[in-house]
Amino acid sequence: MQNKARHHDRRIAVSTLYSLDFNGMLDADPSDINPYQGMNDEEVGALEEEDRIFIRFLVFGTLENREEIDSLISRYSLNRPIEKIDLVDRNILRVAFYQLAFSRDVHPAIVIDEAVKLSQELSNDVSFKFINGILDAARKDMEAR
Length: 145
Description:
Elements: H1 2-22, H2 41-46, H3 49-64, H4 66-76, H5 87-103, H6 108-122, H7 127-144
């Protein structure tokens, strides 16, 4: 059950970051950001407290480290500049890189698997290969250090 809840939480975090990115609000004051974009009060209230905490952790952690995360994405996305990466894919990558590079509380294989699953659910048919390739290359470099 924990894995399904975490997957759902990551999906909400990606959706929130996508919305902020789409609306040009990634640099907004954190106090002005709702980490549960697109959810009504009843839906947020139905979440377990642990899930609400994890979603806030992913959203605000990603936003706080976005400059460095975007630099990492750019380093590994050799053929596609970050501004040319689809909005959904870009924000899936941001959440995954946040967990890989900054939180390190989840095994890298799980982070990559989750990102691939989110891509398969939220993006186009081939994006998951792009996301998997970038994250796998980053994982190998991080493990080599």
